[in-house]
């Protein structure tokens, strides 16, 4: 309803300004502070004061006089407060919000008939996913979710680097060494943990082996790279045997978050189909193309980039950036928009790619990047047996273990009488533990570096995932106590309830917060900032908890009609918080 009210306010302001021959290009619409009763306000009088030759408060009064609130559906009154115009919500606004929000798809926006590909994670398939890179799949998945929920046709892609030197080294090592040559056992019983030992063994060999043996190995590695460049099927199949196995294990790890993909797009695809060769030819024809230091490069100084883009080696092999350019042109052919989630260390590369695509004649208006800083762990809080870093699996295991302890510690303090068995506790531990990791990471602005802190992430009382998840569980508990199945029985509360009976400040504040959810989704999608949804969930949880404290739903002395209205409000709250958590990729537990 907030979006409808906003549209109504925009129309009313434009009409009022036009009637007084004022420009309508900037309406100054904003959300007022919490201590103001209105849902929306306008500061347009500030802008018009000089043109009107009157102080802003007087201009605000003139504009307000031109608006007849009786002609509006969702606005009950237009008040002035100094230079501001305040738009107060009508009873119809609250009634429509309550009706809309009792639908389980509440917050989802209409189909925009626009296709978007979101490329994220795309970690090199050389071993387990490292926790430092965990922000990419978590942010990427949330970006895809919020775009999907806001009406875009979204595909989630993982771009597989299967053509670089790393994969040639990995393939050579996998074919060269036996299990007996490896000095360590796999850290986990999953394929990427097994195979990464070959990759480590191969790199150690290349650093330490006798020179003649290293030369022979390097020749074989080079032949694999040349075979891929020439589209040789045998080279492709050799590399794919390693890549596909490692990638299979990595995707099992990512599925724990969960982060899933519609397509895995391999680099070699654009080498084997001729796109890379075609691209190289067109790059060489550009005025910016030079052959320096035994490589073809683009000089991009005139375009504000002081580092050349190398796109072809002297031996005729392409580079990652070259193939990525072909990949992007393919995206432009297939999708209306292309969003890529990248670590901050790829900022220069992203700028080089966009500039080069433009030099090649591509319209890059639909190309967008979401850049993020890496995740750090507190010193000494976690370690691995090899001491070189923390894998994402380690972090998720630790989160589940800590969440299990927290849930078990709270069993005696639970108000609900639904006895939890071991299976329930394990389910909740997974939902809360992994939810805490995702929420803590996605709730921060991507460009800000973060240190993951367990005490903060798993705090049931503070503004964390468990704090918000508990609101959903509480909604489910109230509905269940009323004899309503939260999953299938929502139609039981979708009766003709009277929203006018929800008249306390706590009830109205909660309804106003619910009403804003679709607008939060819309703005988060426009800005590619899912952390806005996380911010909303914290405010929502505060508002719901205030309602829960002040407005009993099922107490014996509650009027039956008020009871039904409050049950509808609880159902609406459940849908809003469940859908918001779903966008963030955080589970909404039915019980905690």
In a few lines, what is going on in this structure?
By secondary structure, the protein is an alpha/beta fold. 52% of the residues lie in helices and 11% in strands.
Query: Biggest sheet: strands side by side, in what order?
Result: 7-6-5-11-12
Q: How many H/I helical runs?
A: 20
In round numbers, the mean pLDDT is 92
Percent helix: 40-55%
Number of β-strand runs: 14
Distance from N terminus to C terminus (CA atoms, Å) equals 31 Å
Structural class by SSE content: alpha/beta
Largest sheet: 5 strands, parallel
Note the beta-strand portion: 5-15%
Low-confidence stretches: 380-387
Shape: flat
- Rg, rounded, reads 29 Å
Can you walk me through this structure?
- The chain is of the alpha/beta class.
- The protein is 52% helix and 11% strand.
- It has helices at residues 2-19, 44-52, 56-65, 91-101, 135-149, 165-176, 191-208, 211-229, 233-255, 269-272, 275-284, 320-334, 347-359, 392-409, 422-442, 454-457, 465-481, 505-527, 531-550, 560-584, and strands at residues 29-30, 40-42, 75-81, 84-89, 115-119, 153-160, 263-266, 289-292, 295-298, 309-313, 337-343, 367-372, 375-376, 450-451.
- It is flat.
Task: Draw up the topology in text.
Elements: H1 2-19, E1 29-30, E2 40-42, H2 44-52, H3 56-65, E3 75-81, E4 84-89, H4 91-101, E5 115-119, H5 135-149, E6 153-160, H6 165-176, H7 191-208, H8 211-229, H9 233-255, E7 263-266, H10 269-272, H11 275-284, E8 289-292, E9 295-298, E10 309-313, H12 320-334, E11 337-343, H13 347-359, E12 367-372, E13 375-376, H14 392-409, H15 422-442, E14 450-451, H16 454-457, H17 465-481, H18 505-527, H19 531-550, H20 560-584
Parallel strand pairs: 5-6, 5-11, 6-7, 11-12, 13-14
Antiparallel strand pairs: 1-2, 2-4, 3-4, 8-9, 9-10
Helix pairs in contact: 2-3, 4-18, 4-20, 5-18, 6-7, 6-8, 6-9, 7-9, 8-9, 11-12, 12-13, 14-15, 17-20, 18-19, 18-20, 19-20
């Amino acid at each position: 309803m907030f979006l409808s009210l906003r549209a109504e306010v925009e129309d009313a302001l434009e009409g009022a300004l036009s009637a007084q021959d004022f420009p309508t290009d900037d309406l100054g619409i904003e959300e007022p502070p919490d201590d103001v009763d209105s849902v929306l306000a306008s500061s347009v009088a500030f802008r018009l004061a000089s043109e009107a030759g009157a102080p802003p408060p007087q201009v605000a009064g003139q504009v307000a006089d031109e608006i007849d609130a009786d002609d509006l559906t969702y606005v009950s009154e237009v008040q002035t407060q100094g230079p501001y115009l305040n738009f107060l919500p009508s009873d119809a606004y609250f009634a429509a919000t309550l009706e809309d929000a009792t639908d389980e798809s509440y917050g989802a926006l209409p189909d925009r008939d626009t296709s978007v590909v979101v490329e994220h994670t795309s970690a090199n398939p050389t071993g387990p996913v490292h926790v430092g890179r965990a922000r990419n799949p978590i942010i990427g998945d949330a970006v895809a979710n919020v775009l999907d929920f806001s009406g875009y046709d979204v595909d989630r892609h993982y771009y597989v680097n299967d053509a670089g030197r790393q994969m040639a080294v990995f393939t050579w090592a996998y074919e060269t060494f036996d299990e007996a040559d490896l000095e360590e056992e796999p850290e986990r019983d999953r394929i990427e943990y097994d195979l990464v030992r070959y990759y480590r063994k191969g790199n150690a060999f290349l650093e330490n082996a006798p020179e003649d043996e290293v030369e022979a190995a390097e020749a074989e590695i080079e032949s694999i790279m040349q075979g891929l460049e020439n589209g040789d099927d045998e080279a492709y199949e050799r590399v794919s045997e390693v890549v596909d196995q490692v990638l299979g294990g990595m995707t099992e790890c990512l599925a724990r978050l969960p982060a899933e993909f519609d397509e895995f797009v391999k680099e070699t695809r654009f080498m084997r189909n001729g796109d890379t060769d075609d691209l190289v030819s067109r790059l060489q024809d550009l005025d910016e193309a030079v052959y320096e230091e035994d490589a073809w490069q683009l000089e991009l100084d005139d375009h504000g980039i002081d580092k050349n883009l190398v796109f072809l080696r002297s031996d005729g092999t392409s580079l990652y950036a070259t193939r990525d350019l072909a990949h992007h042109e393919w995206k432009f052919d297939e999708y209306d928009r292309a969003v890529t989630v990248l670590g901050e260390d790829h900022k220069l590369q992203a700028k080089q790619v966009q500039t080069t695509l433009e030099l090649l004649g591509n319209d890059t208006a639909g190309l967008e990047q979401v850049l993020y800083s890496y995740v750090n762990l507190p010193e000494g809080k976690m370690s691995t047996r090899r001491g070189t870093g923390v894998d994402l699996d380690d972090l998720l295991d630790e989160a589940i273990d800590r969440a299990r302890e927290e849930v078990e510690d709270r069993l005696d303090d639970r108000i609900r009488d639904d006895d939890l068995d071991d299976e329930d506790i394990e389910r909740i531990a997974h939902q809360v533990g992994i939810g805490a990791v995702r929420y803590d990471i996605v709730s921060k602005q991507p460009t800000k570096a973060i240190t993951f802190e367990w005490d903060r992430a798993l705090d049931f009382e503070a503004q964390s995932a468990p704090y918000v998840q508990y609101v959903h569980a509480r909604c489910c508990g109230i509905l269940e106590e009323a004899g309503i199945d939260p999953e299938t029985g929502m139609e039981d509360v979708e009766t003709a309830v009277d929203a006018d009976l929800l008249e306390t400040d706590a009830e109205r504040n909660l309804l106003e917060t619910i009403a804003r959810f679709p607008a939060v989704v819309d703005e988060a999608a426009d800005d590619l900032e899912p952390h806005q949804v996380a911010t909303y969930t914290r405010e929502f949880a505060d508002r719901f908890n205030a309602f829960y404290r002040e407005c009993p739903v099922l107490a014996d002395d509650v009027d039956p009609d008020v009871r039904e209205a409050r049950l509808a409000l609880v159902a609406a709250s459940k849908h809003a918080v469940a859908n918001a958590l779903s966008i963030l990729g955080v589970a909404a537990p039915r019980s905690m």
